[in-house]
Specification:
The complex is a heterodimer of chains A (131) and B (386). With 131 residues, chain A is mainly β. Chain A is built from one helix and eight strands. The chains are: A mainly beta (131), B alpha/beta (386). The structure holds zinc ion.
């Protein structure tokens, strides 16, 4: 199967990745206190169109996680890896946990977000490390 | 009422060389043979398929499958990931109730094993949010593993509890000739199998499957005018939706889209969860059956984890779940699953299913079909009613 032209990029997502890499992570906030991720023009929880960029907190807590042994092919060289959903208050992020023994991961653990490089493809990857 | 006049299935399993069109031809032939009505009476095909563009390099499958079925009528493909043919059923029910048609062919097909495990794993993953989940390495089993760990953390439960779901569904499939696995397993087999995405192992997961299913639905008027034997009807339909990405949901250990679909379907049929005597639920992973039973109102949140272990959902239990073997043992050719569930329930209620003896007096069944991590959900109530 053929893939789309990667050089076209993903407007909204690429800028978000670059910002987090520079330590300036953000999320979209609506007046009702809901958080979400770009690109979007409407809050996914209340439909508000008044979305503003808010600074992503420097740390969040692990809401759930899994250690994946059987990856999709574009993560073949990364496996096994731990995927976690991390709660940052108004918004949650999905990424991979690094710099920690998978057996030591627990729900509720405090972690900080970062951007690392996916081993298999060299693409940017949302990552978390314990603090 | 919407009458089920015929049902048909291919065997589910590993037939990588078989084209989707050939599988759907077999399933629709079986459905029309069961129905005993001329296929040329069908006024449209409503067809579910998820990954045909990837697996067969075949888009625009509706007209292709109408040809395969030998019906001279327009066709539309529905896509809601693993719930694609559940969506087709709902729209067919609405069309028949509106009086816009009197006979419809509804079904689905999926060819998967020709992709290999890597290819099928990749194709299934695209049901998740590409930017925010797939690019983080979330696989389809991985997404349900995230839900399973959230469930354990919120309500308790163990891998052994989940293993009992797999053991039960394999047991139910033993005599089902359409099932991919007609093979008994025990709890240790499940617990000792290789991990796919912790806490889910190989035997917590449905297989990768090829297969097709079809049902013929008719209006009361068609059944009366043509003197058709159709003892089972679809009496309730419901649909629910949710945010696509799991992290955008308030509760990671629940599936509210299925709760919404169930509430709507119960109201539509004029029944409640206590009236349901058997159900086919979307057990793509063992934890998914647990979430389904709670969403359908059979159990309070946190209570369904022990249902299979306690024997309440086995063939001899109070309310048998997945007497067909479910996705887990019967197989999960994703686009075919929604109509396959209706086909199995119809036979179970008519008394001509190999497992009908488990529910000899039952008159009310339910089908629960979910897409992705239940961002799409369809519930149908199926009753012995004319
Ligand atoms: Zn909002």
């Amino acid at each position: 199967m053929s893939d789309p032209d990667d050089s076209a990029g993903e407007a909204g997502y690429d800028e978000w990745i670059a910002a987090l890499e520079d330590g300036e992570g953000y999320y979209l906030a609506c007046p009702n206190g809901h958080g979400s991720l770009p690109p979007r023009r409407r809050c996914p929880h209340c439909s508000s169109g008044e979305l503003t960029e808010q600074a992503l907190p420097e740390t969040g807590t692990i809401a759930t996680f899994t250690e994946t042994q059987v990856p999709i092919p574009s993560f073949a060289d990364d496996a096994p890896y731990v995927v976690a959903i991390v709660d940052f208050g108004d918004v949650r992020l999905t990424g991979q946990l690094g710099e920690i023994d998978p057996a030591a991961v627990e729900i509720g653990q405090v972690v900080a977000p970062d951007i690392v490089e996916r081993e298999t493809t060299g693409e940017p990857l949302v990552a978390f490390r314990p603090v | 009422m919407v009458r089920i006049v015929g049902v048909g299935l291919t065997p589910f399993g590993t037939t990588p060389e078989r084209t989707g069109r050939d599988m759907f031809a077999e399933a629709s032939d079986a459905a029309f043979a069961d129905a005993g009505v001329p296929r040329t009476d069908a006024e449209a095909l409503y067809y579910g398929n998820f990954m045909g563009a990837l697996a067969e390099h075949q888009g625009h499958q509706g007209p292709l499958m109408a040809e395969a079925a030998g019906i001279q009528a327009p066709a539309t493909r529905f896509e809601t990931a693993c719930a694609s043919s559940g969506a087709a059923v709902r729209h067919a029910v609405q069309t028949l109730r509106n009086g816009e048609a009197d006979l419809l062919l509804v079904g689905g097909a999926e060819r998967m094993t020709n992709l290999g495990t890597d290819g099928a794993t990749e194709a299934l993953a695209i049901a998740a949010d590409d930017l925010w989940e797939v690019r983080a390495g979330v696989t389809f089993p991985g997404a349900y593993a995230l839900m399973a760990n959230a469930y354990f953390d919120t309500y308790g439960g163990s891998r052994e509890d989940l293993a009992h779901v797999a053991v039960k569904n394999h047991e139910n499939a033993l005599e089902n000739e359409h099932a991919q696995y007609q093979q008994r397993i025990d709890v240790d087999t499940v617990l000792e199998a290789p991990t796919v995405s912790a806490p889910l192992g190989l035997y917590d997961s449905c297989p990768i499957s090829d297969g097709a299913s079809a049902i013929v639905l008719a209006s009361d008027e068609y059944v009366a005018e043509n003197d058709v034997d159709a003892p089972v009807s679809i009496t309730g339909t419901g649909q629910g939706g949710d945010n696509l990405a799991l992290h955008d949901r308030e509760f990671l250990a629940r599936s509210p889209a299925a709760e919404d679909a169930a509430t709507e379907a119960y109201d539509d049929a004029g029944i409640g969860p206590d009236d349901v005597e058997l159900a086919e639920v979307h057990d793509c992973f063992t934890i998914a059956e647990v979430l389904a039973l709670e969403s359908l109102g059979f159990y309070e949140p946190g209570e369904a984890i022990g249902a299979a272990r306690r024997g309440e959902t086995t063939a001899t239990g109070d309310r048998p779940i997945n007497l067909s073997g479910g996705l887990k043992a019967k197989g999960h050719p994703v686009g075919a699953t929604g109509t396959a569930q209706i086909a199995e329930l119809t036979q179970l209620l008519r008394g001509d299913h190999v497992n009908s003896d488990a529910v000899p007096d039952a008159t009310v069944g339910l089908a629960h079909n979910a897409g992705g991590t239940v961002a799409s959900a369809f519930v149908h109530v199926v009753e012995v009613a004319e």
